[in-house]
Amino acid sequence: MAMLSREDIEALGFLSIGENLQISDRASFYGADRITLGSNVRIDDFCVLAAGAGGISVGDYVHIAVGAALIGAGKITLSDFSGLSSRVSIYSSSDDYSGAAMTNPTVPAEYTDVKHADVFLGRHVIIGSGSVVLPGIKLEDGVAVGALSLIQKNCTAFGIYAGNPARRISERKRDLLEIELRMKASKAK
Q1: Is the pTM of this model over 0.90?
Q2: What pLDDT digit, counting tens, does each position of 74-93 carry?
Q3: Which of 24, 72, 117, 168 fits as disulfide partner to 159, beta carbons 3.0 to 4.6 Å?
Q4: Which residues is 144 bridged to in the sheet?
Q5: CB 66 within 8 A of CB 88
Q6: What strand order describes the sheet that includes 119-121?
Q7: 6-188 has which fold?
Q8: So where are the chain's domains?
Q9: Residue 79 DSSP symbol
Q10: CA–CA dist 115, 53 (Å, integer)
Q11: If you ran DSSP here, which 8-state letter would residue 33 be given?
Q12: How far apart are CA 34 and CA 60, in angstroms?
């Protein structure tokens, strides 16, 4: 995977960028002027970040793995230390599937009924490969989502969720909070 240089990243026109970015030259960005990237962010091959009106905010120490997609008009927030495994899809917009309106972006807006809602991932959230997060979802700090899960309801802090639809199956350890503090203390020296 070839990584973009700092100059190449700056040329993409992001709203703001941090330090130590690793961005594949095979990732795609739409609405880059509505995307903020923190420091120590890695975005792998074939990722698509398509920021609508709400934008996309990526915190510090975030990894977005191969083939992940963040798409929609609502705001999508990935807080510090969060991570998306390969092929995770996060949507902040969705068509009306009921048949009461037409669907797809080639149809004029007055004939569709697209719903937009913000998506928020708290600190230390990790989402397993192939999972889908729907519009309007909040994953509180420390949530872990198993592979191939469908997240259609909010997830509470430090829960482990899995399934289609996802449900809470266990508790996640909080040791990582102490590890984060040790890491920050070692960097401050």
Answers
A1: yes
A2: 999 999 999 999 999 999 99
A3: 168
A4: 126, 160
A5: no
A6: 16-17, 35-37, 56-58, 76-78, 119-121, 138-139
A7: UDP N-Acetylglucosamine Acyltransferase; domain 1 (2.160.10)
A8: 6-188
A9: -
A10: 13
A11: G
A12: 17
